């Protein structure tokens, strides 16, 4: 679910030529001198021509370390440019970024989820990226970051939406692993197979009763289209929604999903709070590029499988995320040049690998595949399996971010705590949509 909790770590970069704060610190808070960046810090240029660019992103520890190393290389090649990195988990990221943007103090370079791009471009909060070379990037990946034909957000990678599971736990229990192309009937049948076999405190999967992304996959697979139409209309299929929520209601009653308080305590990629890493759940949704992060927390334990299907595929390929330049940046030209390098430079691609998905630059993607590690090949396997007939991803209409990030999680929590029925949940989502249509 998208009930985010704050986990933000900010660093203050040193302004010395050729140096980047904390690049060797393994992502721990504090720069080389122990200082941390305040939320109100602003980018600036010194009298010696030095320019400091603030850059903000979310992700796993693996992504943090790769990004910091890329920033260090850029500063080495461009000694007048240093960075003030602000990075965190996903929890609280959008709230903080939105607050900064409202105060016209957003970082120069910001990482955006593809679903946010229409809103940010529509509010004129992003600067055009006219000089970024897009010759080696698939136009389908570029489209979601455009408004009226102008590129405002640059895709960074291509990823597949599927499931990750604890293969080691399934093997220990003697339960057959799922295979690509499996169905939702297979998924729910597998859940029942675990009944009576799981130790106390362990569950089949999270309670995804009204999780926006998991339900979207279910409705997609039923051939009912997107939950919100591209022209901004509520399109939750009532029959599919009730079928989905009642199946999870049954899993809840049978103790195959965590109690509501445990379910809501999950913090993705946190070594202690992530329910899968802690051994409390066996399945959860994941994107193909995140496999390396999971594997780093428990090497060799996990595997990926396609999102279950029905009449159609449930999973999809999408841009992993975007980089954009804030409209209020004082250094738009320098920030745009950095994004061009970040997306297209082979050395940058070699450092970043698949931490944000398979690189969108086709030449870099080909070179990376040729030298891909066994871990990265697992993520690539899900991507290749999904692209065969996966759904077409769309950013959807602007103006619906709060509906997805706030209204759906509220309904989900009420279902998880058994406060409302599936019928009431559907009615609540339909009524909430009126404010956005």
UniProtKB/TrEMBL annotation:
Which Pfam families does the record cross-reference, listed alphabetically?
Answer: SBP_bac_1
Question: Which residue ranges traverse the bilayer?
Answer: none
Source taxon at top rank: Bacteria
Q: What is the lineage of its organism?
A: Bacteria, Bacillati, Bacillota, Bacilli, Bacillales
Residues making up the signal peptide according to the UniProt record:
1-21
The UniProt keywords, alphabetically, are:
Signal
Say if the entry is tagged with keyword Transmembrane helix. Answer: no
InterPro entries (alphabetical): Bact_solute-bd_prot1, SBP
Q: What is this protein called?
A: Bacterial extracellular solute-binding family protein
